[in-house]
Known about the structure:
Elements: H1 3-12, H2 31-47, E1 62-67, H3 73-84, E2 88-92, H4 105-114, E3 119-124, H5 129-136, E4 142-148, H6 154-165, E5 175-179, H7 186-198, E6 202-206, E7 222-224, H8 227-231, E8 236-239, H9 255-262, H10 266-269, E9 277-279, H11 292-295, H12 302-322
Parallel strand pairs: 1-2, 1-3, 3-4, 5-6, 5-8, 6-7, 8-9
Bound molecules: phosphoric acid mono(formamide)ester.
Amino acid sequence: MESDIQGRAETQQLDAHGRLRHLLTLDGLPHDLIVRLLDRAEELRSASRGGTRPLDLLAGRTVINLFFEPSTRTRTSFDLAAKRLGAQVINFDIAISSTTKGESLLDTVHTLEAMHCDAFVVRHKESGTPAYIAQHLRSPAAVLNAGDGNHAHPTQGLLDALTLRRHVRDFSALRVAICGDIRHSRVARSDVHALRALGVRDIRLCAPAQLLPEPVEFANCRVFDDFDAALENANVAIMLRLQKERIETAAIPSQAEYFQRYGLSSQRLQRAAPDCLVMHPGPMNRGVEISGEVADGPQSLILEQVSNGVFVRMAVLAQLLADSGAR
Length: 327
Ligand code: CP
């Protein structure tokens, strides 16, 4: 991942007064702002009675979901979050849009801006695309990164932090193992930033050598290629999907071999601390990085993560569109 992509995202997302202008990355986002967003998510959970009571914080606002890659969780939860806050939502369908006739990304964005919208929620396979859009906007709309390449997935990092905060008291004593395809994982990158912001000191990254990132990228984490060693006494295991669409097939072991060495089975989970919490951002490859038994077991927070995603996205939308005063 190129450092200039990260640098651009960091500087673009805050205005001159340090207020959130776009949400592009958690890297460099002030700790107080991250905590405020998590607190806001909890407030909105209560105010909306767990999502069942509609709110009108974003009445009259329009949010456009602009997903150039498939998504179930992120797209649906942004849609629900915006609607539960009273906004109108357009789920822009790339497959039947004029992008298929060759319309460029920026022409597409400027066309949508001309119809008036307040926010673009952007997912794209190329790292840096949300920041690129933010840089070229002609209106005061906000850009929310819903996952770009292997760069960042900031709302996933926030929802994982929110989920853990509901279960953990002392983050400074926590031992977190993140295992899987770290090299291609925007979730791993955003999770590390979120965990650091909460005060987690012991973060272990585990992957086969060919799926580990460049050492400079995660200088403050311990890196393992032995999953049993990484899992030893861990309190949290975050499992990551093997991203076959981003990997050259020659570089990965067979699925059976991968599960043998890097899959979280019930037996392997016993190496972790007895109450170890199990997380996965989804979608899962059952029997590859995690067994069905563990995914559906009592230590799994996977569906809680999904539920919390709606409240985190409500919080981010509220912060950007209802609280800014500028838009
Ligand atoms: N975690 C996540 O981003 O899932 P989706 O690809 O389904 O949005």
